[in-house]
Amino acid sequence: MWRSTLLCCCISVNTLAQTGPGGVGNSTTNFLWLSAEHDVTVPSVGVSRWGDRSGNGNHALQATANRQPLLTPGSFNGYPAITFDNDPAAADLLTIADNATLEGMNGLTGFAVFDLAAGTALAAPRGILSKRVDPGAAQNAYAWFLWQSGSNLAQHLDIVGTGNRISSPGSHAINTVYINSFTYHGATPTNSQDQVLLTGNTAVANGAETSTSIPNYTSNLHIGQLYGHTGAAGNTTRFNGRIAEIILFNTTLTSVPRTIIHNYLAAKYGRTLASLDLYIQDEELNGNFDHDVAGIGRASATDLHDDAQGTGLLRINNPSDLNNNEYLVWGHDNGILGAWGVGDRPSGVEGRWDRTWRINEVNASGTAVNVGAVDMTFDLSTFGPVTASHLRLLVDSDNDGNFADETPLSGATDLGSGRYRFSGVTALTNGVRFTLGTTDLTATPLPVELVVFNAEALAGSVHLNWTTASEQDNAYFTVERSTDLTTWEGTIEVPGAGTSHQPLSYAAIDRTPHPGTNYYRLRQTDHNGTTSLSDLRAVDTGHAVEPGWTIQPMPFAHEAQVISGSGPLLEIAVHTLSGQRVALPVRILDGLALLDTDALLRGTYLLSVTTSAGRSTRRVVKE
Question: Most CB contacts within 10 A, which of 1, 41, 45, 359?
Fold first, then answer.
């Protein structure tokens, strides 16, 4: 199967590694992890499932269409978010069924990334999450929400009922992205630090809690609502905003792992932390190394985190000289995990990954430090044949932006299960870049993506061609075609090459395309049945009925109007070029539709409009 250039890469992980957010925790301690770029199901318009990536199967579900929130792409720093509406009668809500992983712990730590929309009264609670039936019942395990505190929209936390609620003193502004968190420590009841609320890594409220653990209640865990709130009319609970990520741990995280997670979230969503903003390689001036940020650090002998992998394929651990208040944090630029066409290589290195990592090795004040030698382990289990002696670690030691003038580091050892380790690496210093290379592209090719896919109308047919730079267990390709981006038909099947480490070109002809615009994609199938889909290609074969509608302005920025010239507008749909439907706020007024396109990233999209004359699709551009 070819390797994707998207934000997430399918990898296997060492179960001993810290593979949770920011490289903190794993499925044992991290019992819920919802991020909007991962495993979101949109069957029609709304989100029916927000998949849990913690490994515990705590998926957030909603079967009722008018209670489903929307997936909104490009919300925060290019990452999507889930938009919960402002409908007081049928507020959006996702539910996680009660199970043993959601309760019974004597510690709890939570994180959320969100913003708030206007139009909700202060007296209407905006629930981030709540495991309860109603405030007065014996099923109120925990609830985290925003609500009125005087004239402020404050942050509140309930642990086992409402009797020991703590509230933050400040207010939350509309259309501002927040990274908030909380901790609960049941091992020391009635201590003033039992409950702590934080905004952007800064503690803003604390209080005592008498309960020593979260009881095993039967209440479900609800996302986007303070469940059971009894307010009426305009005071009914609804979130009315966007949530990009929610993380829960069944333990009280200490300051170091919390700081690392806050830096992971801040880099990912383009925010600056008010305190301990340690990782700055995510900034545009430094190259936007925003992705799969993870880190290690130490505040004291009891507040220590020295092993991290996170969502990426790189694990760093065993620092030889990690002292108090020192951190090593890394992230990558989301470059392609492949060597096809990538230059800037030292002599003797035949290929290197396009993807590059960059680090901050600093103390709590942001001053450069040296945490000593570290072990660096790459998980290459899904990337085909690898010979450890061919691997080279490339470090831009002089930080001049070039790898070609560097000395490659050898000595990788095969740990089994597709993992390869460079031990005792001392070349990492604050701010440097690094990547992985190979001295033999034939025996250790490093994976590459589908490099070319074209479709062109010629003499009443559509000619398609594509090129792969390498293949692993590729059984065949299927050319799929659609006219509406909803129903796809397999038109042509082309045998694959099995396993190949050389560029290969393919061609096919669709001799019976439909009139008008046809959309094509490739479905690649491995011998084990695993499939991957390419991006879409649109081809206009002519002879189509004019769509009978226009869009203004074109290109558009924050909003657009669709004007029908052939009767009432019945449906408006927007898709990415890869075929994913994009949920946008749309108001249809007979022959006019108003689209709020502010959340869209700049680029080209497919706009499908259904009128009484039929359905038609054309490309549109957000500037």
Answer: 359
